[in-house]
Amino acid sequence: MSLLKGKQLTHYYFxxxxxxxxxxxxxxxxxxxxxxxxxxxxxxxKTTLLSILAGIIEPTFGKVTLNEKNxxxxxxxxxxxxxxxxxxxWKKIIDNVLIGPKIxxxxxxxxxxxxxxxxxxxxxxxVIDAYPSSLSGGMRQRVALARTLxxxxxxxxxxxxxxxxxxxxxxxxxxxxxxxxxQYHKTSILVTHDIGEAIAMSDQIYVMNANPGRIHQQFEVxxxxxxxxxxxxxxxxxYQHLFDRIWEELNQLESTSIG
Length: 259
Ligand SMILES: Nc1ncnc2c1ncn2[C@@H]1O[C@H](COP(=O)(O)OP(=O)(O)OP(=O)(O)O)[C@@H](O)[C@H]1O
Description:
Blueprint: E1 2-14, E2 19-31, E3 35-39, H1 46-53, E4 61-66, E5 69-70, E6 78-82, H2 93-97, H3 99-103, H4 109-121, H5 137-149, E7 155-159, H6 167-183, E8 187-192, H7 195-201, E9 204-209, E10 214-220, H8 223-226, H9 230-233, H10 237-258
Parallel strand pairs: 3-8, 3-9, 6-7, 7-8
Antiparallel strand pairs: 1-2, 1-4, 4-5, 9-10
The structure holds adenosine-5'-triphosphate (ATP).
Adenosine-5'-triphosphate (ATP) is lined by residues 13, 15, 20, 22, 42-48, 213.
């Protein structure tokens, strides 16, 4: 069943003297439990599209539905994981994880137990009472993930959450995030520049092109890769095959836009 649908989304940014057509006629559908990636060159509109799907920006034309209901503002059913973790430095790790329930006034013992379980799932039980400044970038992103999952969103929007991390940390975190999202049956949309990351983590990949941003092509990730962890998927022959196809596609897009 489709959880999220974007229908014929077109978006213009208007400034005082000119305008930019950031997206043109984008339609997409995300099935419940699926992991999809938006992949494309800088400026092709990935973040604009994600912001529209999240209800942060209203599209100039088109509409978004979540569970058949129109998305016109930010939804409590959506969770975010961004490039920056935005942890509160003056709050302990457990209190950072519990910030959403606290704001919504739904904090109870059960939620506190759930936060502890999530921190255990991500291997951070030992830093529960520490402050963010004593954690590495990868650990902080794990806390950000726990903070997102504590409110049990039906859809997760991940905007380049691994791009500020070193390569080794990024690979480890991809595995952890992927396992956790499967364990909790989450539906997710990832924005990334990284072809390998998109293939290793996704069920479907939407390749976008720029000026204006459009969905150029959709790729299905072979089932053999989806059954593996991202790290192991990267070693499969089908990973390399798909990587080459997408690489070729993006190269052609680039040469068309230069030419
Ligand atoms: N607030 C804004 N005002 C005017 N133009 C904007 C604004 N935000 C984005 N744009 C333009 O819209 C287009 C799409 O931008 P967007 O940030 O969505 O692309 P992106 O694919 O996420 O880029 P990147 O990968 O570099 O983050 C670009 O041409 C950009 O310059």
